[in-house]
Every structure is written in C-alpha cells, then in structure tokens.
Amino acid sequence: MAIDTSKLIRTSMGFRKEVIPVLTETYASPLIERIKENQYRLEAGRLTICLAEEFGFCYGVDRAVILAYETRKMFPDKRIFLTSEIIHNPQVNLKLKEKGIFFLTDTEWKNQGYDAVKPDDAVIIPAFGTTTKDLIKLQEKGCALVDTTCGSVMNVWKRVESYARDGFTAIIHGKYDHEETRATSSRATMSPGGKFLVVLNKKEATLVCDFILGRIPPQKFLDFFSPHAMSAGFHPERDLEKIGCANQTTMLSSESMEIADMIQRAMKERYGEEEQTKHFRHFDTICSATQDRQDAIIKLVKQGIDLALVIGGYNSSNTGHLVEIASEFCPSYHINDPSEILSADQIRHQPAFKKKTAVTSPWLPEGPVNIGVTAGASTPNRVMEEVIRRLLDVTGNSFAP
User: Fold this and answer.
1) pTM for this structure?
2) Of 20, 139, 395, 396, whose CA is between 20 and 30 Å from 60?
3) Closest CA to 52 of 362, 379, 397, 285
4) CA 164, 167, 170: angle at the middle one, nearest 5?
5) Is-catalytic flag, 328?
6) Could you report the per-residue pLDDT of 362-392, keeping only the tens digit for each?
7) What fold is seen in the domain 28-58+289-395?
8) Which residues contact 64 (CB under 8 A, 6 or more apart)?
9) Which is the catalytic residue, given 180, 324, 340, 385?
10) DSSP assignment of 238-286
C-alpha cells in the first residue's frame, strides 16, 4: 500500500476561532509581552531578567497544537490517539491528555501499539512526523488521520527523497532514535535502493570521512555505527560513493554545516574537484526558527549576562542545543519548569551534553545579577512567566506593577 496524502487532514478543520482563545488563555503570558515591550528587560530588585529576542513556540509547534485542539472539536465522540508526544513539552502534552487524547506511547497502550486503533478512531501525527511504515499501517486502519508534521520537517523529507531517487545515500545529522530522524530516514528508503546513515556529531562524521579516504576498513566502520543508524544492508564501499547531506531540523546549525563541509572536503580529496558534484550534494535544511533561537541566545550571552536559564522539556533537542550554546559563555541551567528552582541556593537542571538531571548549589550569585532567559521552540510563554515568578519568589524580589 502506498501513502495516500490526499486522505491526511493537514489544514484547519474550521474551529480555529473557537480554539485560539482557549490556547491564548492556557499558554500566553501578559508578563512576557510586557518584558518584550520593555526592550526584553525586567528590573526586579537585585535581579535583571534579560530575555532572548527569539524564544518559545515556533510556527510549526503553534500549528500542531492548534490542529490537536481542533481535532478534539471535530471529533467529539471519537477516541483520539497521538502516535507520540505532540511536541517535547510536558505541560502541553498533559493538557492534551486532560482533553481525553490518548498517547500510544503511554503504558496503557504501549503493548497494544497500533492494534489499539480502530476504524472509528482518530489519530494525530505529531509535529515530528512519523515513519512511512507507521503511516501506511494507520492508513490501513481506515481511521481519521490528522497530520501536524512541521513544514520544515517535510522540506527535509523532500530533500532526502530526491537524494534516494538519484542514487545518493542520505547522511542525516541527527539522533537516530529521535522521532523526527526516524521519520526522515524512512523517507530515504521509499525509493528502490534508497540508503541512509545517521551521524550524531563531528566525531562520527570524522569516521565517515576516514572511510571515504581509505583510512579505515569497512568492518571497523560497521562496528562503530549502531544498526539503527543505517539502512538495512548498508555497504559502506558501495553506499558512500554518492552522498547527500541533510539534518534533523533541531540540531545545532553550526555543527550541521561543519559536518557537511567535512564530508564535502573528503569527497573532493577522493574524487577531485571536477568530479565532486557527481558524488556530493548538500542543501541547508536547518529550520529557520531553530536558527533564529540559536542566533538569539548567542546575541544574549555576548551581552554579558551572569547566567542563563533555558526552559523546556528535557527531551527537547532544540532546547538542549540552546543550553549547549549558552554554556560556552556562562553558567547555564536547562530546567523543565518552575519547580526545578528549589531555592535561591539550589536548582535542579539537566547540564549541557548530559541526559540526567543534577542539583547545583549554590547557583545564583550574591548581589546584583543579570539573568538571561530563553526557551525552546516547544515551550509556552506561560511556563516562562511561571519560571520568572518562581525566581522572584525564592529571592524575595519584586517588580513595579
């Protein structure tokens, strides 16, 4: 069975006017708007809060959440499922559960998987997209399908699909177990003979370059990469002759460009300048919202802040990269929500480049302090406000009403 995109609901179902006020009440923040109007600064006692100029919900996330709320309105009597989290933000996902939307990744449904879905149900595909295999399974169910996949993600799909059609292996800078990268890599195998390889960082890209240049044998290459990071039957001698670079849209943009440059240089060295275009292709597929937020945190930390608070889900890739950037300039704390600010002395956070939380004490300097604040693309402004108010509360500071 082929994918029938004509049966996917991808546009408004006519309930925007009803759901927008609900979303505004739930996720908007008058305080954040006030700070933005005051040149992105808030003076509160000894604290100065400095907001990044770009943060929070991006267009793709906004659209996904709106479509999810519209789905509940459109199908009031249907069971509604999400294939996974709509976005990587716990507060947003909790609100959807409160509206009676079930997550197939939750314990009560996980063992059943798609067997739980019946023809009379509705299923929402999250902003990250889903694999072609899973999409076909869902279409075979005959259920209503609402596709909230971000347009930037679909642009990457088009790129890797074109690579596959032309006999190029897609090298994807991303995390092979991330929902978006799994969906993207599946698009590379839609064409007969289509291949992909997922590289996490420059270290892994260096290994690819070393193989291209004949510095390591095929088996060492295959032993290094997880089977999940490459297409079935991957044969490096055959499948790395023609390469097209792409990326998970939420990766660190500077690293994606460096990886593409590394591979291009290796292909040029192996095949020569005149022949390299026959063996290498690259188009920048970093999401503009991701780029804007990364540029904004760089600008903010270079202004001379004392520390940075980066707010967002711990499993959010784009949020994690923001704290990685900030940590190069000042102490930086990735927190999920205001409860992570335990006191003026202690904070629970996920350190840059780590996957587990830690408690740091002390974390807030004495005396006047400039605190930079930003948030990932899936973090509501309301959560940012709650973090700022919690910060003021534990430090005993306030601002003029």
Assistant:
1) 0.93
2) 139
3) 379
4) 50
5) no
6) 999 999 999 999 999 999 999 999 999 999 9
7) Cobalt-precorrin-4 Transmethylase; domain 1 (3.40.1010)
8) 86, 87, 126, 127, 148, 150
9) 180
10) HHTSSEEEEE-TTS-HHHHHHHHHHHHHHHHHHH-TTTGGGTEEE----
